[in-house]
Amino acid sequence: MRLSIERQALARLLAATTRVVESRNTIPILSTVRLVADGGKLEATATDLDIEIQSAVTVEAEEDGAFCVSASLLDSIVKKLPASAVVSMSEADGVLTVKAGRYTSRLQTLPDADFPSFSADGFTTSFDLDLASLFAPATFAISTEETRYYLNGVYLAGTETALTAVATDGHRLSRHSTAPVGEFGGIIVPRKMVGLVPKGNVSVSLSDTKFRVTAGETVITSKLIDGTFPDYERVIPKNNDKLITFDAGTMGKAADRVSVVSSERGRAVKLSFASDHAALAVNSPDNGSATEEVAVTYSGEPIDIGFNSAYLAELIGQFPAGDVKLALADAGSPAVFTSDNAPELLCVLMPMRV
User: What residues contact residue 336 under an 8 Å CB cut-off, 6+ apart?
Assistant: First the structure.
């Protein structure tokens, strides 16, 4: 292979693909990016065996070819080159020579035939939408508990009325919907894939086992989580009759402030709701206590409830600025959060003992 490419174009190509490569790999080929020059294009591919990212840019190639090279080394070199540099790359006999101005480096390569193939066919459903925006308010609730692997992603389902994304870790749940794109059975998109989805409109393709996102020249293909997502609708209370309205920014910041005295991230914050105000309180045996009052709209009987302070602040942060509605049943039942400013978003938070 012999080709020339602008440094910025090469940097974008590597940034789009190599982010899937794990920093530590016991299999050498998984630490590489596969580069293929063919017909005036340079195509890069990287994988971790569960997700594959492929992208391409136009180049001036004197000689086509293919090889695999350390993703981290090549990416680090390109990042340190001058922005205006033109990079020439040539590969022969297992060595890649990279030149830019007076700079030269030689890197060991591996045969492209050793790169794992990622067969992805049989896609039966396709649609276009801003997938990152659909996923965004749900991702905070993805579980990190590996034993319940079926919660380690976002559940995506299409019906006649909506396309819905749901995530839960058993302590909190987020459901975000958008306009329908067609009907398909629910799938579970892994957490890592959710984080790789590009912003803006993308093309989505689904099969029984794979999930593909295409944005321009970049194609990201992922295996789906093979498991059964719980019936999340059963978790969402339908008859919470104590309705409280508060300002999202005010309540979120207050919860964050009072939790500072806690020595534990998961310390409970006690919320005491009475006529038109809420008192937030945190008590720490090690550091002391903190309280703050927040104005709310509420006219029912006084009620106390405890939440994980970090979870509460993070959940409220998913809603846009303005009023958030909190629906409660009692101190021991799940709480429901909604907002007229985001009618497509609903969050559930389990209480804590205080």
Answer: 236, 237, 240, 326, 327, 346, 347, 348
